[in-house]
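Quick one: Branched-chain-amino-acid aminotransferase from Flavivirga amylovorans, structure tokens please.
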Amino acid sequence: MNSIINNIEIIKAKTTKINDVDFDNLKFGHVFSDHMLECKFKDGEWQAPKVVPYQAINLDPSAKIFHYGQSVFEGMKAYKDTNENVWLFRPLENFKRLNISSKRLAIPELPENYFMDGLKTLLQVDNEWIPKKDGSSLYIRPFVFASGNGFHASPADEYTFIIACAPSGSYFSGKVRVLIEEKYSRSANGGVGFAKAGGNYAGQFYPTQLAIEKGYQQVIWTDDNTHEYIEEAGAMNIFVRINDTLITGPTSDRILDGITRKSIIQLAKAEGIPVEVRKLSVHEVVTAAKDGSLKEMFGAGTAAVISPIAGFGYKGEDFDLPEFEDTYASSLKKRITDIQTNKAKDPFGWRLKVE
Ligand SMILES: *Cc1c(COP(=O)(O)O)cnc(C)c1O
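--- reply ---
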């Protein structure tokens, strides 16, 4: 039976896959919920979104996504608190950024209500898929791609917006060792590095494989021009603690404006931690590692929230970070996840209850 919630039509899946899922042993992004939101752009406008059964997508071989890479995405999470209330974290920021990314890739921007009402409706339909276990959440992947056809190198005339969901366990993979990149670049001035474009990830995989072969888990991206300034850690923003000051680079064409990054900056400032948003050179980090003032480095992004770095390689030399209790990484991660999961007050108004 079809039904309508928040003006969104719902076509229910005939069966559920939920009984096959072991919610106590969830990996990250491996199983998908019963439904997805689907919305098409055609005849010059976005058509009304629908919640439909999670299913494969049927595309023509000439669909422009395959040839010209017009595709952008978002990553967000829904959390269930102990009273089974459902919460999102700063979802409007994801909506705005999706449109910023779309605009840069000549993809038509989505109306806010299609994104927000579509998302809320999907979460209501797939409510049972939002894990209750501490540290688990429903990972949400909104994405838009060129589904219009033709080999002509120009923007497509049809697009598809989908939101798919994956119940996920915590992303924690232990501390990582990283390699400061001297040759390859993730992004360039005037390019698409600030957009969450699929192709940015494709371009990262090969240099990351090379780093893995050398015994590191992740690449620290440096500026494309001189490779002298630290920009991002893999697909996360990066923070460096020197003495008691937390430093992160300013957003630009090349650095993605992460929601976790800006939340950490605000939280840290509110906790009285000195924060500097400024260019940070590799030289400064290496010098601090040598004189012992380098205390912490960590990546920041939705999936892992905060991912501590154990050490880094640079020009054939390896540097270890000190191990100690009460790191900024652990206290800030706890602060953020407590706010996300409704365990703590939300002084910044970041949480949104889904109802
Ligand atoms: C998604 C992403 C981030 C983190 O953004 P959040 O909004 O915190 O999840 C950082 N850097 C890159 C390159 C990204 O793609």
